[in-house]
Design a protein that fits this description.
CATH class of the largest domain in chain A: Alpha Beta
Strand order of the largest sheet of chain A: 5-2-1-9-20
CATH architecture of the largest domain in chain A: 3-Layer(bba) Sandwich
Order of helices and strands of chain B: HHHHH
Number of domains of chain A: 2
CATH superfamily of the largest domain in chain A: FAD/NAD(P)-binding domain
Number of strands of chain B: 0
Helix content of chain B: 40-55%
Helix content of chain A: 25-40%
Oligomer: heterodimer
Strand content of chain A: 25-35%
Radius of gyration of chain B: 13 Å
């Protein structure tokens, strides 16, 4: 590389006002000096794929901006790859991620407490420990909350018996316990919600990897997937894979065939569907209807749908200025509610915030999503999407599914890429660097 | 290679919030390129530094990266599983800017 002739003046001109750069550290971040006042104060609420990425990339794009991340948990457990844990393929500790990179390498102030309230007029956030913090820009990445009022009989107490496991952690462990306790020859029921919900292919990958566990340890068992919709993500690929790998073990019942669960009796291990059919289960997983996380409600950024509408170009709230909403809580269709999208949205938000604090127009937004699902440890499928803004709307400009009828080595490579994808996104989001390349 | 881009990446690695255009006539700014390239990190690690079954991007030659991206787009990369679907609608200038970006990272 040519680097001999450039002058310091040229470099500073190139890097612009924010560019107090030292050569220390591979990213040049650790040695960054901050001269004078910060270039702005940003608070990020939520330390998942969206929030942690937003905090990191704001600091990458302009280290002179002060960033605080509010997240109660010291380790964040991901929903992606929680299905591997459920299938007995991966330890729980391998889907947990900490905040050391954000703290040490990027100088993000990580505050492990709950954000209780947001005042969008005063531009302040109130924390559970009583502190009130001011911001120039606020990023909300609160993920989902369960709509406890949406499904008769399914409240928080019921979820302690029939878990949702749609936020990874103790709920995921509880579901694994239920699966382990089930006798061979038992019936496992998963109830999937109508759109929109977190991780559209999630329920279908989940039954796949539970089938993998049953096939090894409880081969006479059945899986009944009761669905509140008539079509689902990667449907053709899932159904092809189920047939090929598990024969008739998985039965899917769509909305038109009375698949929508309307009542849950967790104690009795029973669900009732729309037309009055009762289904008995030996183990149950209720994936209930969802809404944006609580703090988005407090911030006044959600509409009657329960989700947060945003300006496509920047993901700034349409309802409250200087608040940006990323990830599952936002209305970003046709982008799915996925960790990949949250990570990508966070980068666009980071760039938009940096630009705005610097008095510049936002850059052109572009997002990608590549979503792998595992049917078994050596059978992967995928859907990809590239998104941009046209006429004020988010549109999918490219993408599609991996092919049906692909040879075994193609499926095997997609399974390997799935693991690599998880390792990469966790490195990109939390700096996790020691994840295994093998599935188990 | 764009000398400014190369130097700044080498020195700071700070995703070059400058305004110097790339060599292409489309003049995709370095800021815009940094944002485009940030998408790649979700599978290839921050700044394309992850290695595994998914190959690293950082520090590979511009010519190789450019050729590979264009081969994904034209359908000539027979081993592709997902990149053909991802790059389908990027302009040549965008792909070249992305290739230049990763080539400039040490």
């Amino acid at each position: 590389m040519k680097q001999g002739n450039i002058t310091r003046r040229e470099l500073l001109k190139f890097l612009g006002a924010a560019g107090a750069v030292s050569a220390a550290g591979s990213l040049g971040i650790a040695g960054c000096s901050r001269n004078g006042a910060p270039a702005g104060r940003v608070i990020v609420i939520g330390g998942g794929f969206g929030g942690a990425t937003a905090a990191k990339y704001i600091k990458l794009f302009n280290p002179d901006i002060q960033v605080a991340l509010i997240e109660p948990a010291e380790r964040f457990y991901t929903c992606p790859f929680s299905n591997l844990y459920l299938g007995g393929l991966r330890d729980m500790q391998l889907i947990g991620h900490g905040y050391e990179e954000l703290k040490q390498r990027y100088q993000v102030e990580v505050i492990h407490t709950l954000a209780e309230d947001v005042d969008g007029s005063a531009k302040t956030v109130r924390l559970a420990d009583g502190r009130v913090l001011g911001y120039d820009k606020l990023v909300l990445s609160p993920g989902i909350d369960i709509r406890w009022d949406a499904l008769e009989g399914y409240d928080q107490a019921a979820a302690e018996i029939a878990p949702h496991a749609w936020k990874a952690g103790p709920q995921t462990k509880l579901l694994r316990d239920r699966l382990e306790a089930m006798e061979d020859g038992g019936t496992f029921i998963l109830s999937a919600p109508a759109n929109p919900f977190r991780c559209p292919p999630g329920p279908y990958e989940r039954v796949s990897l539970i089938a993998h566990y049953f096939k090894q340890h409880k081969p006479k068992s059945k899986i009944l997937l009761l669905d509140a919709k008539d079509a689902f993500s990667k449907q053709g690929l899932f159904m092809e894979g189920w047939k090929a790998v598990y024969g008739d073990m998985i039965e899917w019942v769509g909305l038109s065939d009375d698949g929508r669960v309307v009542r849950v009796d967790a104690q009795a291990g029973e669900v009732e569907t729309e037309f009055g059919t009762l289904h008995k289960a030996d183990a149950m997983n209720i994936v209930p209807p969802q809404k944006a996380g609580f703090i988005a409600v407090r911030a006044g950024v959600i509409d009657t749908t329960g989700w947060a509408p945003v300006k496509p170009q920047t993901f700034e709230s349409k309802m409250v200025s200087d608040i940006y909403v990323v990830g599952d809580a936002s209305v970003a269709a046709p982008m799915p509610k996925s960790g990949f999208c949250a990570n990508n949205q966070a980068k666009v938000v980071a760039a938009a915030i940096v630009a705005d604090l610097d008095g510049r127009e936002p850059l052109e937004a572009r997002w990608t999503n590549t979503c792998y699902s595992l049917i078994s440890p050596d059978y992967g499928i995928s859907v990809a999407g590239v998104y941009g803004v046209e006429d004020g709307h988010i549109v999918e400009t490219a993408g599609g599914l991996s092919p049906l009828g692909a040879p075994a080595d193609f499926r095997q490579r997609e399974a390997r890429y799935a693991v690599n994808w998880y390792n990469a996104i966790c490195q990109d989001t939390w700096g996790t660097s020691d994840l295994p390349l093998a599935l188990g | 290679m764009d000398r400014h881009l190369s130097l700044a990446l080498t020195l700071g690695g700070l995703l070059l919030w400058g305004t110097v255009a790339t060599a292409d006539t489309d003049e995709i700014s370095t800021r815009q390129t940094s944002l485009l390239a940030a998408s790649c990190a979700t599978c290839h690690g921050t700044q394309g530094r992850m290695s595994g079954a998914v190959p690293p991007l950082a520090g590979r030659s511009y010519d190789v990266l450019r050729q590979q991206l264009l081969a994904f787009q034209s359908g000539e990369a027979s081993h592709a599983t997902v990149m053909d679907r991802v790059v389908a609608n990027y302009s040549e200038a965008e792909l070249e800017a992305i290739a230049r970006y990763f080539a400039a990272i040490e």
